[in-house]
Amino acid sequence: MEGPQVKLLHERVDEHEPANGESAHVHSSGSLNKYSKLETTTWDSFKLDLDIFSLHFHIEGYDRCDTKVKSRLWDDGTYFKPNLIKDGTIRLMPHFQTKRFGTSAVQKRALLTVNDDLAVQNIPQPQKRNKKSTSTISVANQAIDLTLSDSLVKSPLSIRDIVTSDITEPVPVQSKHTLEEPTNIDKTLTIAHGYPTVSRLPAHATVIEWLRDWTEAKQKYIAIEYKGQAQGRGKRPDRRGNDYAHQQMIEGKYGIVAQQPCEQCEHGEYECRVYHPACYDWELKGSNVKGQLGFICGMCRLATGTCKKKGMIGGCKARFEPV
């Protein structure tokens, strides 16, 4: 597929914000339509050490690492949509991250140049572990919410940065540690659900706050997406506004990572989040709380109709508790 013109903005290194302004790295239409070409060109342009840094990309405005560009979707042309292209150009921010080795590649090379045998003996023997995040899947703002307008796709996935790589990397034995114990455990939920790792719903995440936040998110979606022209379009604006508002709540303080992710999120490598179980204890005037909140995950809320749109049979089967 012929790709658009690509502009590489100033780079971001680790968590340091990029410089203001634009980089001069501009590439012609079609030259970077494959992710491998995009990577090669970026390394050549910014001259950073491949042994020290890893690289991924953010579309301008999508700064969280859980919304990084996916190689498969780039190659398929998924990102080459009007709402992501500005003045005929797709603008990318390269994000370089320092690789986390027990001993850095630079240190290893320095040791080996002095005395190969001695250096190898002195390097701590690594133990491999799978670096897949404990949350298993990374939610990113990819194929589903690319159907939304550019101004709206920025916010749906306001989640923490998490590691998404399946690559095993060496970690020194002496630095091994067990997974951090969760803090602020809700003993009531532990008794009710039988899971000692359930985090307490934040104190300010009340039903009153939820109603206010949910209504505001819905109104914002309809106002921006339909530009004040929602009348005469039937129930679609209202339904899509509901879906968007629920998705925003789930990705925020009212949601929690599903212990059993749905097939769609696993397939797309998204973090699967659902409403916190404590939300179902709320009392909503004139409405059944379970019917109002529903049970499908945040990502699937953005799909039109059911998750069958993505070629999956049976819809969203995300569950807070494991089966």
Offer a quick outline of the entry:
The protein is an alpha/beta fold. The protein is 30% helix and 12% strand.
Textual characterization of the structure:
There is one protein chain. Helix content is 30%, strand content 12%. By secondary structure, it is α/β, with parallel strands linked by helices. The chain has 2 domains: 1-99, Phosphatidylinositol 3-kinase Catalytic Subunit, Chain A, domain 1 (Ubiquitin-like (UB roll), Roll), CATH 3.10.20.90; 177-310, no CATH class. Strands 1, 2, 3, 4 and 5 form a 5-stranded mixed β-sheet that branches. A two-stranded antiparallel ribbon has the order 6-7. A two-stranded antiparallel sheet has the order 8-9. It is globular. It starts with a strand and ends in a 22-residue tail after the last helix. Residues 102-196 and 306-313 have low confidence and may be disordered.
β-strand percent reads 5-15%
Return the structural class.
alpha/beta
Secondary-structure element order, N to C: EEEHEHEHHEHEHHHEHEHH
Radius of gyration: 23 Å
Distance between the termini: 42 Å
Mean pLDDT across all amino acids: 67
Count of distinct strands: 9
Task: Name the helicity range.
Answer: 25-40%
Note the total helix count.
11
